[in-house]
Amino acid sequence: MRIIAGMAKGRNLISPIGDTRPTSDRAREALFSSLESELGGINNKYFLDLYAGSGAVSAEALSRGAGLVHAVESEESAVKVAESNLELFEKIVGSGSFQVFNSSVARFLKTNISIQYDAVFIDPPYELANDLVTNDLEALIENKFLKSTSIIAVERASKGNPFLWPTGLSELKVRKYGHAVIYYGIPSQNG
């Protein structure tokens, strides 16, 4: 695994041992291309990475100039890898701020941190049921983690059941990258 673009382009990432499935380089590159297109760039944006695993997506956001990156992961070994990756890239990049939360996503989304994110990436284990991901999205809305201009990206298995957005979020586009599908959504205007 490596950083695709930004100030740390080409740098290798530490890979986790175990069942953590990192987002592929191809999917990560496409994700950030879409986010940069929709947001007009990621510089100084607030980025939330749920089910962060190794922190590869968070490190990519930091490398590309995100102002704040929060990574949420419950698996202790993956948290340590994510912290190592992000600490290394913070030193290289020299700007931006990050924090890794050793927490379940559900518990994190109940916290009152008073931050609204510009971009949210959700990459749960593929075996996690879509309705549980929907619960996470509903908590993002209910607890006001989203701006009216936020972009949400959800990675799921391409062979799994189609993902449906809950009330309050609308589908922007869907893109397939090998075994992964990324569903892009935005807050509904009437929602």
Describe the structure.
- One of its GO terms (molecular function) is nucleic acid binding.
- This protein has 191 residues and is an alpha/beta fold.
- 30% of the residues lie in helices and 27% in strands.
- It has helices spanning 25-39, 56-63, 76-93, 105-108, 130-142, and strands at residues 46-50, 68-73, 97-102, 117-122, 146-157, 169-177, 180-187.
- Strands 3-2-1-4-5-7-6 form a 7-stranded mixed beta sheet.
- Helix 2 packs parallel to helix 3.
- The longest helix has 18 residues, at 76-93.
- The protein starts with 24 loop residues before the first helix and ends with a strand.
Give the end-to-end Cα distance, rounded to a whole number of Å: 38 Å
According to CATH, the fold-level topology is Rossmann fold
Main sheet makeup:
7 strands, mixed
Structural class: alpha/beta
Q: Nearest-angstrom radius of gyration? A: 15 Å
GO molecular function: methyltransferase activity; nucleic acid binding
InterPro entries: DNA_methylase_N6_adenine_CS (IPR002052), RNA_MeTrfase_RsmD (IPR004398), SAM-dependent_MTases_sf (IPR029063)
Keywords: Methyltransferase, Transferase
Pfam families: Cons_hypoth95
Summary?
It is globular and about 40 Å long.
Which structural traits does this protein have?
single chain, seven-stranded mixed sheet, 191 residues, 5 helices, 27% strand, 30% helix, alpha/beta, globular, Rossmann fold
Secondary structure layout plus pairing:
Layout: H1 25-39, E1 46-50, H2 56-63, E2 68-73, H3 76-93, E3 97-102, H4 105-108, E4 117-122, H5 130-142, E5 146-157, E6 169-177, E7 180-187
Parallel strand pairs: 1-2, 1-4, 2-3, 4-5
Antiparallel strand pairs: 5-7, 6-7
Helix pairs in contact: 2-3
Pfam families: Cons_hypoth95
Keywords: Methyltransferase, Transferase
InterPro entries: DNA_methylase_N6_adenine_CS, RNA_MeTrfase_RsmD, SAM-dependent_MTases_sf
